[in-house]
Write a structure and sequence with these properties.
Blueprint (H helix, E strand, L loop, with lengths): L1 E3 L6 H10 L7 H20 L4 E8 L2 E8 L4 E6 L3 H10 L4 E11 L5 E9 L7 E5 L2 E2 L3 H14 L4 E10 H11 L3 E9 L1 E2 L5 E2 L5 H6 L6
Helix pairs in contact: 1-2, 2-3
Amino acid sequence: MIINLSEQHSLVSNWVSELRNVNIQTDRIRFRRNLERIGEIIAYEISKTLPSTVAEIQTPLGIHHSKVLAQQPVLTAILRAGLPLHNGMLNYFDGAENAFVSAYRKHNKDGTFEIALEYISSPDLTDKVLILCDPMLATGASLVKTVEAMRQDGGTPSQIHIACAIASTVGLQYVESSLGDEVTIWCGDIDDELTAKGYIVPGLGDAGDLAFGSKLQQ
């Protein structure tokens, strides 16, 4: 399932427009905060789909039977660009377990690239809700490789959600064809074009660089 949060105008589409805007992108704290806000909204939307239970809550005047989450999810940041989105989700799922994955494009001299996955820090995922945070879903290759690696090492989650600020149509198709209906993808917006080098157009540029500064090329 794919949910595009910009299909209907809301604050999400305002924040995505600021992420794209070259005149606003120079303000790194604002860029990070907009990603964080999108993470908060996606966390709230995902929470509506999660199993709940009824807990007896003692108030000063009596007992209230309150609906609460049956289980906290596992929030996963794809380093480094996924950190602001992850932090936004952690603001809402503040009791969540957390995982961190180092997945990046390793560029070859001929212009092609491979997905390098060098590090995973994760709790046991068996029968838990797994949420992956990566602001740009371009080719989808890194997310598919991450999900496969996490399931192999950490167990089989009960649900898998992917949260991104912008996704490409091609990347969404690849994730769906690779992972099927096991995954729900939440997007701030969707762009149709993907270049031969795997960049989303119009997109917003390199989310990691815009959030944290430029890096040496791998």
